[in-house]
Amino acid sequence: MKTIMKNIFILLLLTFSVQSISAQKVKYKKNIINVDGRDIGKVEVQKENFGLTKNFNLYSMEGEKLIVAVLSTEYESDRFDNTTMYYRFTFLPTDQVGVFKLGTLSQEKGFAKLIGGSGIVEGNSLNAQKVNEFIATKGVTPRTTVNYMLVERNRRWPIELKEGGTIMQDRKEIGFFTSLGQIQDQAGYEFFIPSGIMVAKIFFTGGNNAQNFDLFTAKDNIRRVISIPQKEEVKVSLSAIDPNALTLKRITEWLVANGYL
User: Which is more confident, 17 or 98?
Assistant: First the structure.
């Protein structure tokens, strides 16, 4: 009898625990994520591609950047699901990366709900073990997009970078670039063809004097380090296009010359 009562007590306790977890309430208002009445973080929204897409940064309530979430267009769309988009989450304090799905029409709210319900935010940082569990249970592994068509133009014309990240050649838009911001002291950028397919992702240090670059190209699914030397030292750059505009011009020329853009 005692054994039966003990088992019933354990069952009730487990049921109560599950109900408590499932009853967790996540609210999102004025860029603040609130879980069970407690503010856990603030979301910064960065609009890209004329506002058609959004990227997100998550900060702790004390201002520490915890997560960078950027749209990942290097992946093939899920033909069975046209209501979601792939996002790459970089968990800065724990140096981990995962790919997740967010709703096409509700990226911002979906990001807030996903993070709020994960339990990974602890005070001013992230719990590494919970981040591992979060990636394992909620993350996805999509296939990389490898086929795309480049814009037809006269490649002998000079390449121009315009404000907003537009890349022009032969008076035609051949692509655009977006900044990923600074990730562990490295500047990150993604390059796209006009249709929005990501063709290259690059990281570097040194600003406009950068010499070596960590490059990923989606067409061949290769990540490698390339060298594009800067002949003269750049001391000051006042470009309205981007603080690293001179380096981005060199990168763009390399991508065009090698058939990636």
Answer: 98
